[in-house]
Design goal:
This protein has 2 domains: 169 residues, BirA Bifunctional Protein, domain 2; 42 residues, SH3 type barrels (Roll). 22% of the residues lie in helices and 35% in strands. The chain is built from 4 helices and 12 strands. The N and C termini lie far apart (39 Å). Bound molecules: biotin (BTN).
Length: 221
């Protein structure tokens, strides 16, 4: 992928702006006034952090896997820190969430929005403990590494399917083989996180059944 980058001082949300751009565009803003997180949550946009949205092609059968491509690419963009991935694509450092990814499909495009706490962590996150990279990287370094990794991993997905991306994801994953809690819109489940299925779902073994879950928030116990 050949990226074309557009910089803004302030936008409402880079994901919202990105809708008007072609595949291969990257929207970066120094500040967002209405940053969005997963499941309708707000994303606090603190000074010095990175807010970036990349416009990806909505691949025919691979679209659900873009979430893992995005997570793995961001993990690979931070090579000298021991980051881990929490399903599907929260980036953790020492158990604290240092980055979140929001994928939104619009027509034949998928907007992949990355919020990376380069300098500051929000004081309080409703769901998880938040952390930051403490400026170990500059936003420019993360951007460069991320766009390279994203391009490489998209090629890998298109050439070899989900198998190698899944393997890379598993190498970064937290919680596999452990007891976890999964919050779904109408219920909360507890069980053993057996594995990530070849379709990208969580296989959760509860006392009564094995459930396959493809959307939700997981909590390590
Ligand atoms: C999450 O973990 O809930 C996902 C957070 C995604 C935040 C980023 S910041 C850049 C892009 N623009 C947005 O409004 N959201 C994403």
């Amino acid at each position: 992928m050949k990226w074309q980058t557009y910089f803004f001082k302030e936008v409402d949300s880079t994901n919202t702006r990105a809708v008007d751009y072609d595949v291969g565009s990257v929207i970066i803003a120094e500040n967002q006034t209405a940053g969005r997180g997963r499941n309708g949550r707000r994303w606090q946009s603190l000074a010095g952090n990175l807010f970036l949205s990349a416009v990806l092609p909505a691949l025919q059968n691979e679209t659900p896997f873009l979430s893992f491509v995005a997570g793995v690419s961001l993990a690979e963009a931070l090579p000298d820190v021991p980051v881990r991935l929490k399903w599907p694509n929260d980036v953790l450092l020492h158990h604290a969430k240092i980055a979140g990814i929001l994928l939104e499909r619009v027509d034949d495009k998928v907007i992949a929005g990355f919020g990376v706490n380069i300098r500051q962590a929000p004081d309080r996150d409703m769901l998880y403990q938040a952390g930051s990279l403490n400026q170990k990287y500059t936003p420019e370094e993360v951007t460069k590494n991320l766009l390279t990794a994203l391009s490489d991993n998209l090629d890998l997905l298109m050439q070899s399917g989900f198998t190698p991306i899944r393997q890379k994801w598993l190498n970064y994953a937290v919680g596999i083989g452990e007891e976890i809690e999964v919050k779904l819109p109408h219920e909360t489940l507890r069980g053993l996180f057996e594995t990530l299925t070849p379709q990208g779902a969580i296989s959760l073994k509860t006392p009564t059944e094995t459930r396959l879950i493809s959307a939700g928030d997981i909590f390590l116990l």
